[in-house]
């Protein structure tokens, strides 16, 4: 429960709700300021959810590195030729 | 005349910038390098012929990805492959979302213990090797959503535009796709001989 004297403190949420919104939060898709404040407040004092956030960030970085593909040189040459025809 | 030239310059530069991403997406759809190259070429030709339908140049990437995906679906139809089977493995669609968060919390402790392990560097190497296998094992609809958002950096509304679904569906697919990805990685780590935390306690004693 929030300190009744602290009117600006975000409403407390549980781990369940924090995890439900974690991906949208990390993807920058948590639109409203209230939800954002609630998640950040929870992450600020829940060690388990904070660790999960760190884990998710690291996994995303791994995913980004592993899944990137490079267009082969022959495709690049083919595309340049195609674009020249337009 | 000069408007057309401006369009052509913009289009050429945008295609060049997106080439790797387009090839990557095509590769994951076709699972074959030669087919992926053909798909990119076909999509770019189609996109140029439809350039007037691009209303906002800032949204070139989702617009282009959507054309690529539509070309793929159309090719599947021509080859009498049902695109629904290829694009949307809906086996998980009807599973309730309500059970998702408890699953994450349940999984969390073990997974976090693994993450905090001193062997993490070694695990990271394995992660790098295994992550694509885990991605490949995801149902198609989750795989494309996770890749579009996490790898290509599209916003939920942009990914929704590409996939032809509401943004709320992208949001729930991200949640579920990432959960399934973690589950697969955890299982792979165990298969690779990594001890579960309880077993490790046993060994350390």
Can you walk me through this structure?
The complex is a heterodimer of chains A (86) and B (205). Chain A contains four helices and no strands. Chain A is mainly alpha-helical and 86 residues long. In chain A, helix 1 (15-26) crosses helix 2 and helix 2 (33-45) crosses helix 3 (47-67). The N and C termini of chain A lie far apart (64 Å). Chain A has one domain (15-85). The model of chain A is unreliable at 1-5 (pLDDT under 50). Chain A has helices at 15-26, 33-45, 47-67, 73-85. Chain B is mainly alpha-helical. Chain B folds into two domains: 2-87, Rna Polymerase Sigma Factor, Chain: A, CATH 1.10.1740.10; 90-204, Winged helix-like DNA-binding domain superfamily/Winged helix DNA-binding domain (Arc Repressor Mutant, subunit A, Orthogonal Bundle). Helix content of chain B is 77%, strand content 0%. Chain B contains ten helices and no strands. In chain B, helix 3 (60-78) packs parallel to helix 8 and helix 8 (156-163) packs across helix 9 (167-191). Chain B is elongated, with a radius of gyration of 20 Å. Chain B starts with a helix and ends with a helix. Classes of the chains: A mainly alpha (86), B mainly alpha (205). The A-B interface holds A 15-17, 19-20, 23-24, 27-29, 48, 51-52, 54-56, 58-60, 62-72, 74-76, 78-79, 82-83, 86 and B 8, 11-12, 15-16, 19-20, 22-24, 27, 33, 37, 40-41, 44-45, 48, 100-102, 104-105, 108-109, 111-112, 115-116, 124, 127-128, 131-132, 135, 146-147, 149-151, 155-156, 171, 174-175, 178, 181-182, 185.
């Amino acid at each position: 429960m929030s300190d009744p004297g602290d009117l600006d403190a975000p409403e407390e949420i549980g781990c369940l709700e924090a995890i439900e919104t974690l991906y949208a939060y990390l993807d920058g898709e948590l639109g409203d300021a209230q939800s954002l404040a609630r998640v950040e407040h929870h992450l600020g004092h829940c060690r388990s959810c904070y660790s999960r956030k760190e884990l998710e960030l690291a996994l995303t970085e791994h995913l980004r590195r592993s899944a990137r593909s490079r267009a082969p040189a022959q495709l690049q040459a083919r595309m340049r030729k195609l674009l020249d025809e337009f | 005349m000069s408007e057309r030239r401006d369009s052509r310059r913009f289009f050429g530069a945008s295609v060049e910038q997106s080439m790797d991403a387009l090839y990557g997406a095509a590769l994951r759809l076709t699972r074959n390098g030669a087919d992926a190259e053909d798909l990119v070429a076909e999509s770019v030709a189609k996109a140029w012929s439809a350039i007037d339908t691009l209303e906002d140049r800032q949204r070139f990437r989702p617009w282009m990805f959507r054309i690529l995906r539509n070309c793929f679906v159309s090719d599947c139809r021509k080859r009498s492959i049902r695109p629904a089977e290829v694009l949307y493995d809906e086996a998980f669609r009807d599973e309730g979302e309500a059970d998702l968060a408890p699953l994450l919390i349940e999984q969390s402790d073990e997974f976090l213990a693994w993450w905090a392990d001193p062997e993490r560097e070694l695990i990271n190497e394995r992660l790098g090797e295994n992550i694509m296998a885990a991605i490949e094992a995801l149902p198609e609809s989750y795989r494309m959503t996770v890749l579009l958002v996490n790898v290509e950096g599209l916003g939920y509304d942009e990914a929704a535009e590409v996939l032809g679904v509401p943004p709320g569906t992208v949001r729930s697919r991200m949640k579920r796709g990432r959960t399934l990805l973690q589950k697969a990685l955890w299982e792979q780590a165990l298969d690779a001989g990594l001890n579960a935390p309880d077993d490790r306690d046993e060994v350390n004693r």
